[in-house]
Each structure stands twice: as structure tokens, then as C-alpha cells.
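Before the break, one more example. Copy the sequence into your notebook; we will annotate it together after we see the structure.
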Amino acid sequence: MRQKIYFQDLGDIEYGAAWQKQEALLQENLQAKSQWYSKPETERPASIDTTNFLFFCEHPNVYTLGKSGHMENLLVNDSRLKELDVSFYKTNRGGDITYHGPGQIVGYPILDLELFFTDLGKYMRRLEEAIIRTLAQYGIEGDRLPGAAGVWLDPQNPARARKICAMGVRCSRWITMHGFALNVNTDLRYFDYIVPCGFTDKGVTSIEKELGKKVDMQEVKDILREEFGKLFNAEIVSMSEKESLYL
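Here is what the structure looks like once it is written out:
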């Protein structure tokens, strides 16, 4: 059955607030799943009452460190962070350190993978493919770097390999949260103060840098949303007033 994913563009939102929203929805889905499994098989409804979401947003300048990350990859101290007007969070996602800021599309899918497929590796590849297909609309050839999540340009060439989209997720009982960050019109100077994703020998880029011009953020969002729906064989529907109560 084709699944429904509720979509909302949260606009500009502080990282911690977006994290809290994700956690709340994750917990609601986990509770629904727990209640379903706690019933005898003969009394269980035909399906678990979980809900799928996809959020896009932009964050004020922030560095986030994944649970497998290393603090030494943050190259500035607290006083310098204040000067740069950048906040910092240790998160419960996978991956190392990355930057979020204006001009970057951050995507947070909250999906019950039991409704799609129970394969976290496959899930990550689908996220990457959505980005790769979106980049292709702008004549940019995105690719994968073996052993590293995210989307890269020229990954086979060590002298030119550069990341355009970072990824890090959390998955609990097949419910996902966190997601991806695609550099569109991003100020890449903020990456100079970290070791992005723990890679010391690779660069970072954006759609703007590759094309030599700014691109329309809404246009990129529209393409990305459509490709996401195709890859997950899902109907992407806007949040109604009722669903917005979740937020």
C-alpha cells in the first residue's frame, strides 16, 4: 500500500526547537508501536497507528556533533563561538560534526520503516539518491563515497572530492529522525572552523559554488520533495490544521 507522508516546511527554526519537535513525534510513534505489540495477536488492529512526516527547514548558525563524533573536530572554543554567533549541540544522531545555517536545506524524515522496508542501509541510500537526483536537475553529478554517508562530488578524485550534503540519522524500533543537510546557498566559511564529518582531506561545496550563482531555495525544495516521494513510493501531502497540532 502506498504510504502517506505529511510534509511541512518549518522555515527558519532554532536547532534545539526542531530537535524537540522530532523527539516528540518519535515518542508518539514509539508509543503507538508499543501499544500495538502489547496486545495479543488476535486483538491487534490490521496496522500500527504510526504517522510519517517529512520536515524541511533552515537553522541559524549551529554546529552539531553526532554521538560517534570527536570534540577535537570543533576547532574553536566557546568564546570564539560567541564571536561567530554560532551555537553548538551534542546530538543523538550518527556521524561526526557538521554545520547548519542559512541557505542550507535541512531535511528531517520521521518514518516508520516497517511501513517501507526494514533496512537502515537501504534507507540511507534512498536519502542519498533523493539528493543525487535533485542535483542532477542542476547539471551537478552527485555521487557516493564508499564508507561515508552523504553525497559527494568527484569522490574518486582525492584532490577534488568535496561534500555537498551531510547525513546523520537516529533509528529506534525502525522509527527514524534527524536526516540530511544540503548546501544550496550556504556560507561555506563556517566549515573552516570544524573538521567536517571528521574528514581532514576533503572539501565542502554548495550548489551556489558549483554553478557560480545563487539558486532559488523554493525550487530546490520542490524538486527534492518530489524525488523523495518517488523514491519512497509515498504520497507527500501538506500538513492540515489537524496534523499541525503535532507541532
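The chain has six helices and twelve strands. The chain has a mean pLDDT of 93. Try to locate both features in your own notes.
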